[in-house]
Amino acid sequence: MATGATPTDVVTDVVIVGAGPTGLALGIDLARRGVDALVVERGAELAPGSRGKGFQPRTMEVFEDLGVLDAVLAAGGTYPVGMVWRDGRQLGEHRMFDPAEDGEPHSRFTVPWMVPQWRTTRILHARLTELGGRVAFGREAVVVDQDADGVTVRFASGAPVRARYAVAADGGRSALRRALGIGMTGETVDPDPILVADVRVEGLSREFWHLFPPGGAGDAGEAGEAGEAGEARDPGGSGDLGDPGGPGEADRSGGRRGFLAICPLAGTEDFQLVAQFPGADGPDPSLEGVRKVVGERTHLAPESVTAVGWSSDFRPRAALADRFRAGRVFLAGDAAHVHSPAGGQGLNTSVQDAYNLGWKLAAVLTGAAPEALLDTYEEERRPVAAHILALSTAIHRDQARRGAATRQLGLGYRESSLAVTDGETPGEVRAGDRVPDVQVDGARLHASLAGPRWTLLAMGTPAPRTPEGVRVLSCQPVEPFGTGLYLVRPDGYVGWTGTDPEGLAAYAARVGAGAGAGTQGRPGTATR
Q1: pLDDT in tens, 464-485
Q2: Backbone angles phi, psi at 82, to 5 degrees
Q3: pLDDT band at 171 (very low <50, low <70, confident <90, very high)
Q4: Is there a contact between 243 and 343 (Cβ–Cβ < 8 Å)?
Q5: What is the mean pLDDT of residues 26-48?
Q6: 3-class state of residue 315 by DSSP
Q7: Virtual CA dihedral for 191, 197, 200, 204, nearest 10 degrees?
Q8: Are strands 260-264 and 271-276 parallel, antiparallel or unpaired?
Q9: Helix (H), strand (E) counts: the chain
């Protein structure tokens, strides 16, 4: 528990500012490890709106480990095929995603999964509550102070919170990041404002993601010719909100209206409407404003829009925090990186920030690992965020496709100081790689790795003595593994690989493997 608290302070080990998917996922990971954490949220309740609606395969794997996969699957569905329209005619289907190919990393998940963000946060909140975690609503963080023993977060009203560490997961306009003076370096991806709204629409099929390219001479032919092949500029996209795509110089100078996309939201009666407004100061989010856009850009009558729920407008930008850590305060999610919604990468990268940070905080708080372990959060996540930012921007500008890279299964930490190879590296799997979800004697490997603990894979070689709390799985080598030892981190990446038991023991001591595993792991040793 944090020292330096006053009698009026709320005291906890970790205070997480922001009850979005990032903050809630981190709260879940800490709660299942027995860490006392408090999530604080400025709003009176969880945020409304579909917002980021797409989960990539790697995030689905994370959700499986956090214990929310069944609820996420029940709440959503696969993405519909895009349908390009012009003058009330269907010009052809538009495939949003390149299909998975042979040779891609092994996973039970191969396509993105759609869940409106308002439903995702409720699923995560329910899981956090189930594990004994809590969210304090109506707490607007304004100042953070820190000293050698901990941090104090102060609010617009109410008692301060004293903790050993704080995590800013309070979005792109993060109050904590600004209070710390951490800058954001980036660029405007598209100067034109975008409106996104959750709407009810009559007379529109829920079978397709309806795409209405910008108006103007030549648009229909290009969209129609590209409808099946998917080679033209994507007017609707597959981003967290829908792909804004750049309107191009001709759009701004030639009076085009900008794209419009209307996507049925899986598991609901709503559609998510995304519209671009070239050269405008800002869109009108009212029911009449949305009806006007639909009436001007589609074959539908304005009155077909019967209701507008949540709505928002923004200008797509890409930005990266100069640092992900300032002393005892960490940045995660949109507080650390802001993406164009193109490609559906921002929300997924944010959840994986939480998944990387959770086990490290727990290891340090329990005394299992030195405080220096926390330095590896920025070391590992900032380069990943920079890479994904470049990918999102390239997709927005039609310079990259939505394929294997957007599924995020190939991301890893080979360059991390936590990725250690001791001697000759066996097989294709290297230290820092995500563990592929292969079949081991009829069972999925990820199922055997589930839970907040380290696991030693002994592939075709005897398992040496391991620290108490490290799970051991002995089996014959299966591709793409080779013969040897693989020490798997709690977040499913290989930390150490080799054949030397002494090297394994030294690494385990350095990272605190086996200690502070939490209460949700699977005890015992498995042999296959």
Answers
A1: 999 888 999 999 999 999 999 9
A2: -75, 145
A3: very high
A4: yes
A5: 97
A6: coil
A7: 30
A8: antiparallel
A9: 13, 31
